[in-house]
Design brief:
- Keywords: Membrane, Transmembrane, Transmembrane helix.
- This protein has about 55 residues and is mainly alpha-helical.
- It is built from two helices and no strands.
- The longest helix has 28 residues, at about 20-50.
- The relative contact order is 0.07.
- The mean pLDDT is about 85.
């Protein structure tokens, strides 16, 4: 195996995953929770209003 190919394979194996910092994780969790709360709120709103979603 040539050196270039060997080096390419080694680089591919050692390739790291993209780093996600703490701020991005916090924003992601916050928006997921926000969407969940919004969905629950809409379900209760429509249930108490008597409007069927169908």
């Amino acid at each position: 195996m040539s050196e270039n190919r060997r080096k390419r394979r080694k680089d591919k194996r050692n390739k790291q995953k993209p780093n996600i910092d703490r701020k991005e994780k916090t924003y992601g969790i916050f928006f997921i929770v926000l969407l969940f709360v919004l969905a629950v709120f809409l379900v209760f709103y429509f249930a108490f209003k008597g409007i069927s979603i169908r």
